[in-house]
Amino acid sequence: MRVIAGEFGGRQLLAPKGWKVRPTPERVREALFSALGDVTGATVADLYCGTGALGIEAISRGAGRAVLVDQDIRPAMGNVHNLGLLERVELVRADSAAWVAGGAGGGSFDLVLLDPPYRQADTVAAALDPVIASVLAPGGRVVVESEAGRPLELPSLEVVRERRYGRSLVTFHVHSSSTESR
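Above: the chain's sequence. Below: its structure in token form.
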């Protein structure tokens, strides 16, 4: 597994065997970031970050800052340390939904990347849907990776794009009051 493009393009990311992580495949990350376009200067939250691959990819492509949140941050910590990203990436050990509900450390994010365990889609959706918009900056976006057969739905947000990659479904959202065009 590697960083796809940008400053750290081609650098290896570690996904330790035996750890309960399901890194987003390179093909899906490449398609996701191609669809997002320019993320230069963006403030990013990578929820249920696992190895941190999504947040690290955003930093590599020019995002200004990323917060990686997971109950076990050790897989992400190894990648953040190996790439020398300690000044640009904050690691938060917490339940992602509880962290957002608690105000996300006072943060406001241009981009929220959400990739929880597929089997938890319903639970995560119920916990995040009422609060996710509160951490979005004006014009902010939420990108959700979920299982195609069991999508994670956030009815409080507007779906602006959806793509399927094998068993993964990637859904792009904006706040329903956003004027961002499709």
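The longest helix spans residues 26-36.
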